[in-house]
TrEMBL record:
Pfam families: Glyco_transf_29. InterPro entries: Glyco_trans_29 (IPR001675), Glycosyltr_29_Sialyltrsf (IPR050943), GT29-like_sf (IPR038578). The keyword Heme does not apply. Belongs to the glycosyltransferase 29 family. The keyword Transmembrane applies. The chain crosses the membrane at residues 12-31. It is a single-pass type II membrane protein. This is Alpha-N-acetylneuraminide alpha-2,8-sialyltransferase. It comes from Patagioenas fasciata monilis. One of its GO terms (biological process) is oligosaccharide metabolic process. Signal peptide: none annotated. Keywords: Glycoprotein, Glycosyltransferase, Golgi apparatus, Membrane, Signal-anchor, Transferase, Transmembrane, Transmembrane helix. One of its GO terms (cellular component) is Golgi membrane. One of its GO terms (molecular function) is alpha-N-acetylneuraminate alpha-2,8-sialyltransferase activity.
Length: 257
């Protein structure tokens, strides 16, 4: 094959580019083009699955919910609250090696008394922002849920609402997006406040105590929304919860939990 005679160029590529090159080569090696199924095969595969559509299994749901509660107690620990994070408590960041902080007066005052959701949440939609929903027409179905969670401040403008819906109760925000899109809220903060208006009365869920670099931007989001009298409020992710839930999913992947 001509591809195998290809020589490494003498000029050094940046590490990222050569890694990408190797990845693409491996990918082509493992999945050569002739093994990709054609359209007919795909349609046939789908037709074969007819009648075996996914069905809700209440026994499995109850069992899984119990496992989750035992491992991570989301009802209590999902967010930082005055109840689960009293003043003076020492907490370890879940995304840093050996870095802890002590909850002081100023931080404590930012926490709600308890997790502010009416539990159980009943029917939930969890909506990612990878773009797969484009042209899906799923908006109505998503909005039918009692509680809609979205990931990382996705666009919700009217051109997308047919595909992704309008409703939001909780939206996650990575501190890095605050840095990249909103100059870390160190300059004008109005663009940020305007951009989150689409989330109506939502909570913005931020991992303020996962990485050292995330604390500042997360607190600034909190104060910005408060200063502007915005409808949205920040909920800080609890690092203990994030650590436990991370372990839980890893163990599930290995079939242990
Ligand atoms: C439902 O889930 C339970 C627990 O995982 C399992 O034992 C059972 O076989 C499932 N039932 C159906 C119909 O799939
Ligand atoms: C913490 O705040 C409360 C009320 O705002 C105040 O009474 C108390 O003295 C403060 N404690 C410390 C250690 O600053
Ligand atoms: C926004 O909130 C208002 C008042 O709670 C509600 O009437 C409206 O339907 C909400 N809009 C969306 C898109 O969720």
């Amino acid at each position: 094959m001509a591809g195998l005679a290809w020589k490494w160029p003498r000029t050094r590529l940046p590490v990222g580019a050569s890694a990408l090159g190797v990845f693409v080569l491996c990918w082509l090696y493992i999945f050569p083009v002739y093994r990709l199924p054609d359209e007919k095969e795909i349609v046939q595969g789908v037709l074969l699955q007819q009648g075996k559509a996914w069905r809700r299994n209440q026994t499995a749901v109850t069992l899984f919910r119990k496992l989750l509660e035992e491992c991570c107690d989301p009802g209590q620990l999902f967010a930082m609250t005055k109840l689960n994070s009293p003043m003076g408590k020492n907490l370890w960041f879940d995304g840093e090696f050996l870095y802890s902080f002590t909850i002081d007066n100023a931080t404590y005052s930012l926490f709600p008394q308890a997790t502010p959701f009416q539990l159980p949440l009943k029917k939930c939609s969890v909506v990612g922002n990878g773009g797969i929903l484009k042209k899906s027409g799923c908006g109505k179905q998503i909005d039918q849920a009692d509680f809609v969670m979205r990931c990382n401040l996705p666009p919700l403008s009217s051109e997308y609402s047919k595909d992704v819906g309008l409703k939001t109760q909780l939206v996650t925000a990575n501190p890095s997006i605050i840095q990249k899109r909103f100059q870390n809220l160190l300059w004008s903060r109005k663009a940020f406040v305007d951009s989150v208006k689409v989330y109506n009365h939502s909570y913005i869920y931020m991992p303020a105590f996962s990485m050292k670099t995330g604390t500042g931007p997360s607190l600034r989001v909190y104060y910005t929304l408060e200063d502007f009298g915005a409808k949205q409020a920040v909920l800080f992710a609890n690092p203990n919860f994030l650590r436990d839930i991370g372990k839980f999913w890893k163990n599930k992947g290995k079939g242990k939990a």
